[in-house]
Amino acid sequence: MFIQTESTPNPATLKFLPGQTVLDAGTADFPSPEGAETSPLAKRLFGVSGVTGVFFGNDFVTVTKDEAADWDHVKPAVLGAIMEHFQSGEPVMAGEAQSSGHKEFTGEDAEIVGQIKELLDSRVRPAVAQDGGDITFHGFDRGVVYLHMQGACAGCPSSTLTLKMGIENLLRHYIPEVTEVRPVAV
To answer: Total structural domains in the chain?
Structure first.
C-alpha cells in the first residue's frame, strides 16, 4: 500500500491519500479524541502522540498535530497507523458515517439558503477538499452567512482570508442578499 502525503495551507495539518475510498459519502470530522469511538481509524490515529484532529473525506484523511509536535516524528507514525488500519480490514466508521453536511434551514429565507448551499457545493467545497478540509452551511440571519470550517480549514492561518476574500465575495456576487460571511465553532 502506497500512501501519498500532501501539505495543506494549514502548517499543522497534512493530507494523506491512501489510494482507496475512505468514506463512501459525506465527511467525518473529529476535532478531538472525544467522539472518535465511532471510528476505528480515528481512534487509531488519536493514539499517535501529537495528533489533535482527524478529518475524513471521500479519498483522503487529514491529520492535525499540536504545535509542540514535529511532523518528522508524527508523520511516520500516522502513515503506519493508516496502513495498519486498511490492512486490518476494519471499517473506517463503525455504524453510520458522520456525514457532516449542511445544517437544515427553514423559514422565509429558504430560497436564498438553497442558493447559498448550491454555490458552496458546486464552487467552494470541492476547492477546500483539495486542501484537506470542508466548509458547511450553519446559518443565515439578516444577510450574514455562518459557515463551519472543518479539517485543514479549521484553525488555518489563511482561513479568514479564504472566508472574507473568497467565499464572501463569491456569495455576494451571486446572491445580493448576502452581506457578510462569518465562521462558527460547533
So the answer is: 2
The 3-class secondary structure across 125-148, one letter per residue, is HHHHHHCCEEEEEEEEECCEEEEE
The DSSP symbol for 166 reads: I
Location of C-alpha cell 481509524: 41
Whether 70 and 16 map to the same domain: the answer is: yes
**What residue type is assigned to position 176 of the chain?**
P
At residue 178, the pLDDT reads 93
Distance CA 140, CA 116 (A): 9
Instruction: Show the domain range for 53.
Output: 4-88
CA-to-CA distance for 32 and 152, rounded, in angstroms? 14
- Indicate the SS3 state at residue 46: helix
Give the span between the Cα atoms of 63 and 176, in whole angstroms: 37
Q: Who's near 37: CB < 8 A, 6+ residues apart?
A: 43, 94
Structure letter (DSSP) for residue 69: S
pLDDT tens-digit profile of 122-138? Answer: 888 888 888 888 888 98
pTM here is 0.78
pLDDT for 78 beyond 80: yes
**Statement to judge: residues 37 and 65 lie in one domain:** yes
